[in-house]
Amino acid sequence: MKDPIAAALDKFLGKKSEPTKRQTPNVATEKSNKNTKSTKTDLAATNAKSRQNPVRREAQNLASKLGSLNSLKRDYHAYMNSQSPEIAAIRAYVMAYAQFELENGAGAEPIDPALSDEALSAALISAANKNISTGQSIEGKAVDSEVLTWAKDVLGVGSAIGKIDQVREELAAQQATEVEPPAEPDQIDLGIERSTEQQSGV
Q1: What is the mean pLDDT of residues 163-180?
Q2: Which of 37, 39, 114, 178 is 20 to 30 Å from 135 at the Cα level?
Q3: Would you kindly state where each structural domain of the chain is located, as residue ranges?
Q4: Within 13 Å and on the Cβ side, how many CA atoms surround 139?
């Protein structure tokens, strides 16, 4: 440190004081701060992910598990009109189940093995097998309970309301239009009159 008397003398004589040295930033400290901020950001993202809605997370897991079976949510007309071999087994199941309910009432419990959970599982496996991205066969693997329950809810098997109910209602509407309409009153009177004339020999 410069002597204060000498400094005052220099100032009096007009000498310029030596410039103050510029402080060099501590690079190591700044890098450490940046690393700390990055770590905190990563931890915050991890914590936010761990706090994600468990219901949403389960739905995402199920959607991933279903794969091509997500297409079961298609419009019910596809089950009635589609000729695609990819859904042939499921289409046959839906149409048969809808016809059964049409004849026995909605909610009736079928005893036909073709309408059992095992038959539905086989149809689901068939549909997934033809759409699986890896091209590997999943024949012989049972559909797990979560997938089967989801499919029954979407299709409307048993007490659930779904595609089968829509197909059943459509079939009922088609049958109603196929019934021959009753004859008009004038046509009935004309028929009776002709029958009377024939009997009287006129």
Answers
A1: 89
A2: 114
A3: 68-178
A4: 3
